Amino acid sequence: MRLQVVGEHLARIRRIDEDHFDAVAGQNWYHVIGLRNIISHGYETIDMEQIWKIISTEISLLDASLDILGGD
């Protein structure tokens, strides 16, 4: 569910200022937005092994890329 929330927040940021978002967003930001859509609307197709892979191997890359937003 946390991945869904992160994806929702990134989508909101993109709607506020799409040009700026496109200028600073990493490709993985778009992937998280897409994952949010799958979790929210296509939950019956969720592959839990793929979710685990994201959590265990890719979340640190996302965390590092979000530092541009000024988070700790």
Give a short synopsis of this structure.
The chain has helices at 2-16, 18-24, 27-41, 48-66.
Q: Which short descriptors sum up this protein?
A:
72 residues; mainly alpha; 78% helix
Task: Please state the CA-atom Rg, rounded to the nearest Å.
Answer: 12 Å
Low-confidence stretches: none
| Biggest beta sheet attributes | none
Query: What would the principal axes of the Cα set say about the shape?
Result: globular
- Topology order in helix (H) and strand (E) letters: HHHH
Structural class: mainly alpha
Quote the average pLDDT. 85
- Write down how many β-strands occur, each being a DSSP E stretch of 2 or more residues: 0
The termini sit apart by 21 Å
Query: Given the structure, what is the number of helices?
Result: 4
Bin the helical content. Answer: over 70%
How many distinct domains? 1
Strand percentage: under 5%
Q: Care to describe what's here?
A:
With 72 residues, this protein is mainly α. The protein has one domain. It is built from four helices and no strands. It starts with a helix and ends in a 6-residue tail after the last helix. The relative contact order is 0.16.
Q: What does the secondary structure layout of this molecule look like, with pairings?
A:
Blueprint: H1 2-16, H2 18-24, H3 27-41, H4 48-66
